[in-house]
Write a structure and sequence with these properties.
There is one protein chain. By secondary structure, the protein is of the alpha+beta class. The protein is built from ten helices and 15 strands. Strands 2, 3, 4, 5, 11, 12 and 13 form a seven-stranded mixed β-sheet that branches. Strands 1, 6, 7, 8, 9 and 10 form a six-stranded antiparallel β-sheet that branches. Strands 14-15 form a two-stranded antiparallel ribbon. A hairpin with a 5-residue loop joins β6 and β7. The protein starts with 6 loop residues before the first strand and ends in a 5-residue tail after the last strand. Bound molecules: 2-acetamido-2-deoxy-beta-D-glucopyranose (NAG) (4 copies). One 2-acetamido-2-deoxy-beta-D-glucopyranose binds next to β3.
Length: about 400
């Protein structure tokens, strides 16, 4: 894969309509902020490789869980997202936004879908199912986690209804339950977002040439570079005292979605210098102050696919109780007080070509029942001894106060 030295943002604007301008603006800001924080957490812990994540598919299950979470577990979900779905106005707005986000126009398809795969025999609270049935086009399916391969196949069949595969020879790495403690699994919460569209102005295949691309390490790579002359929205912005970025908007046909490209102005500036300055307010300013201008646009063709364990990412955003078998409070889901999230898997891909773009994201959370098995965890100083039982002879005795010493 090509090292990727510009940042891209797929923004969907104008999805919250109506007169309540302030709330709409605020929620747009919060959604962008959540996306930026996800990006920064991954970019910061990563290693400079290509990266793609679908914040929209991550936020839907976190919203859904708010309906079943109580106490601190719920509070942490609300803080990480920046909003609560329990507020009437926010609730209504998000519902409208979800409906608007799932639109298909000429040449454009956006689909948002969510499903709960529930262990046969597990009963969910009716309050919870009422709420989720209205959320993000979600559906309820029953499954049998004691047969993990069949459940995996069932989930992936559902996912593939919305998300097309990657390269023909590439096995899609969606959701796998191989590692799940199947007898304790109760629910898998899966959400997908998929987007497919053609450019408002396509790049001609015949204009694509092999040109140089300089990697972060200074390597010169030869890459297929698409080219067109077009009237585009463009702006140049000061990010720090020394650094500027060029921001270009490439719109898709007949939709409110555009691809924004953020390129360090100075060739020697690594992305790592700019990433800390990527904020929701910077994005708000950039996207609202672009000017129409005629430009020669060169953009490499690219295709990125990522597979993450989201647990660490979400934990660093403050969502910790949800993953703790003893602290998680998901009483609102089924009345049981022993559910927690054991796995959070994310899969995202994007493909940017001459005629348009395909992008998708899938997030799967697996909810387990806390094991009834008691736990012994020597995670503090302890004493030990080695004793021969027939004679009572103690072969040795001691203590451990620092296992690393
Ligand atoms: C870099 O990070 C990506 C994503 O986190 C990971 O898939 C890849 O294995 C890492 N590569 C190296 C060399 O550490
Ligand atoms: C809602 O989900 C169904 C299948 O569960 C799908 O056929 C439909 O296209 C989705 N609707 C939207 C608006 O995404
Ligand atoms: C689930 O699968 C297990 C193992 O195949 C089987 O014993 C059990 O009867 C199944 N449960 C249901 C409710 O079908
Ligand atoms: C389930 O899948 C794994 C790996 O995909 C395989 O090793 C295993 O044999 C399968 N189990 C059954 C019962 O088919």
């Amino acid at each position: 894969m090509l090292p990727f030295t510009f940042i891209l943002l797929l923004l969907h604007s104008g999805c919250l309509q109506g007169g309540q301008g302030d709330l709409r603006k605020e929620l747009k800001g919060l959604k962008t902020e959540f996306a930026v924080r996800l990006y920064q957490t991954l970019a910061g812990s990563g290693n400079g490789t290509n990266l793609v994540i679908s914040p929209a598919s991550v936020s839907v299950p976190l919203e859904l869980l708010q309906f079943g979470a109580r106490g601190n577990t719920c509070l942490q979900l609300e803080r990480a997202l920046g909003y609560t779905v329990h507020g009437k106005r926010v609730h209504n707005f998000l519902r409208t936004a979800q409906a608007a986000a799932s639109t298909s126009g000429p040449g454009t398809t956006i689909q948002l879908a969510c499903a709960l795969f529930v262990q046969t025999g597990t009963s969910l609270s009716s309050h919870f199912t009422e709420h989720i049935s209205l959320w993000a086009n979600s559906s309820l399916e029953t499954t049998n986690f004691s047969e993990p391969n069949r459940t995996t196949a069932q989930i992936n069949r559902w996912v593939s209804k919305f998300v097309a595969g990657g390269k023909p020879n590439e096995k899609p790495r969606n959701v796998s339950l191989e590692r799940i403690h199947s007898t304790l699994a109760q629910i898998a919460l899966v959400s997908t977002v998929s987007f497919r569209s053609i450019w408002q102005k396509r790049f001609a295949f015949t204009d694509t040439q092999v040109l140089s691309f300089t990697s972060t390490e200074g390597l010169i790579l030869k890459v297929p570079m698409m080219y067109q002359t077009a009237n585009v929205n463009y702006g140049q912005f000061q990010v720090t005292a020394k650094q500027q970025v060029g921001v270009l908007e490439l719109p898709y046909r007949g939709s409110s979605v555009s691809l924004f490209l953020v390129l360090p102005w100075d060739k020697a500036t690594p992305l790592a210098f700019l990433e800390p300055h990527l904020t929701a307010s910077a994005i708000h300013i950039w996207t609202n102050s672009l000017k129409r201008i005629k430009m020669d646009v060169f953009l490499p063709r690219f295709r990125i696919q990522n597979h993450f364990n989201l647990k660490d990412v979400l934990s660093s955003l403050g969502i910790t109780d949800l993953f703790d078998p003893f602290k998680a409070n998901l009483k609102g889901i089924s009345g049981q007080d022993d559910l927690y999230v054991s796995e959070a898997i994310h899969n995202a891909r994007i493909e940017v070509l001459e005629d348009g773009t395909k992008a998708s994201g899938t997030t799967a959370l697996v909810l387990l029942r806390r094991s009834r098995t008691p736990i012994f965890k020597a995670d503090r100083p302890f004493i030990f001894f080695l004793r021969e039982s027939d004679t009572g002879s103690v072969l040795c005795i001691g203590r451990v106060t620092n296992p690393l010493e």
